[in-house]
User: Fold this.
Amino acid sequence: MLDFLSSPAEGATLPPAAVGPEPPDLLTQILLGLRLDGVEYGRCVMHAPWAVAFPALPSARFHFVGSGGAWLRTRSADWQRLHPGDAVLLPHGSFHVLASAPDVTPVDIDLLARRPVSENIYLLDGRDPVHSGHFAGQAGVPQAPGQSPDVVFCGALRFNLDPLHPLRAMMPEVMLAGDLARRDTTVPVLLDAMEREVAQDRMGACAILARLADALAASIIRAWVECSCNNPTGWIAAVRCPRIGKVIAAIHADPERDWNVPLLADLMGASRSRFAESFTRTMGESPARYVAKVKMSQARSWIARDGMRVAVAAHRLGYESEASFSRAYKRVIGQPPSTARAQ
Assistant:
């Protein structure tokens, strides 16, 4: 698990000079708390021709090309070439295919034999005799003599941000590390470290690559956020605006509060009509709708992660009854709150 920045040790006190500064803006607060948990990692040695389909997941997907190369395709984008040292993050875990060439028929990653290394790390070799015909996608097509295998490091990572969170919802389907390397000098350093680790193939390489992948994925997101901050529109620009950002930060900081337009307008220092118009124009939705999304995102986290009872979540968020809360939850999430516990 990785934090963008370390917090003070528990029980530690800040020096007098550090007491009383302005609280960080919402975007900084989110980056301070953004964490990625590695669900699983795999070191895949692929022998052309090969193609692997990765089904959609609620977790993010991450790939690093250690040697050789690969082609990537998603449902919404055509094939693009990945070279050695390239890394790609798919923050929404959407369906995609990796292949040695675009014309190879893919097989589902879950159908391939794995050799466990530890609890959440595995090795996969395309020469597995049971699966090689399916793996290649073209049974009977041998690998070219002397051709080196493609080595790809794959990972599934879980965000501590709910999918409804605006920052996560704004992330593109695919983030290429190369596109963001110019924004963050950490990215090429981590890419170089991963490339050396793959090339040396030393003992414990998978475990070290897993930790590097955590750090690289977080750095990719940070670089994307910094790049997106130059965009004059959208959620990131809104939270950077001192007046609207103050309102959004307050909503996220205290989702249990009974936020209404008069209260939020006072917080912004504007009339109710001017606040509502400004907020809707900037955010693309009404204050009431945004508050409801934040509340239900918090409720889903309580129910799914903490095992909170639906009635307790309803009471904490100020609903008069579990039934009225459930109706509001389904209206925002699209499913009843009971599904969060099942998930």
User: Anything to note?
Assistant: The first strand starts at residue 2 and ends at 3. Residues 168 and 245 are 17 Å apart (CA to CA). The domain at 2-10+22-228 is CATH 2.60.120.10 (Jelly Rolls).
